[in-house]
TrEMBL record:
Domain CBS: 19-75, 77-132
Key words, A-Z: CBS domain
High-level lineage: Bacteria, Bacillati, Candidatus Dormiibacterota, Candidatus Dormibacteria, Candidatus Aeolococcales
Name the record gives this protein: CBS domain-containing protein
A Pfam short name: CBS
InterPro entries in alphabetical order: CBS_dom, CBS_dom_sf, Diverse_CBS-Domain
Gene3D superfamilies: CBS-domain
Native species: Candidatus Aeolococcus gillhamiae
Length: 164
């Protein structure tokens, strides 16, 4: 049984609770130089490519720039972009990112970019949450409830959000 001292049920934490809404983007037709400058100067690993109405067209990642020839973002971007929605659970979004081995997950509403969730965002969230074993009070970090406590074998947990 998982009880909850903070009023936050981990199953109800959504992508909207953790995503970045003010997303850095490049536009279709922008040069690779512009994309690289944005990636390097902002210390990020990739950037969504959007049209004038903010529809997601692709993503330019470090690997795209390093591995594909081209002069514009349209020539090198990854076009088959996997997205999620604001109301998706954080756990389901993390599962997509881990199983697909992607570093950033654009958040879309009606095909338009409204946010982005990165592995760094997940780590920031995990940093401020933990599971406490109800048997021995051992703390464990992670998005999901542990099966058993590594210290005592306990199977009952309390999820806590640590004040920032």
């Amino acid at each position: 049984m998982t009880e909850n001292r903070t009023g936050t049920d981990p199953a109800t934490i959504t992508v909207a609770d953790v995503m970045v809404s003010n997303v850095l983007v490049v536009h279709s037709g922008d040069s690779i130089d512009d994309a690289v400058a944005l990636i390097v100067d902002s210390r990020i690993t990739g950037v969504p490519v959007v049209d004038d109405e903010h529809h997601i067209l692709g993503i330019v990642a470090e690997s795209d720039v390093l591995g594909k020839p081209g002069q514009t973002v349209d020539e090198v971007m990854t076009r088959d972009v996997i997205t999620t929605t604001e109301n998706a659970t954080l756990d389901s979004a993390a599962e997509i990112m881990l199983t697909r081995r992607i570093r950033r997950l654009p958040v879309a509403r009606d095909g338009r970019l409204v946010g982005i969730l990165t592995r760094a965002d997940l780590l920031r969230h995990v940093r401020h949450t933990h599971w406490t074993c109800d048997w021995c009070a051992n703390n464990v970090i992670g998005l999901r409830r542990p099966n058993a406590c590594p210290q005592c074998g306990g199977e009952s947990w309390t999820f806590e959000v640590v004040p920032r």
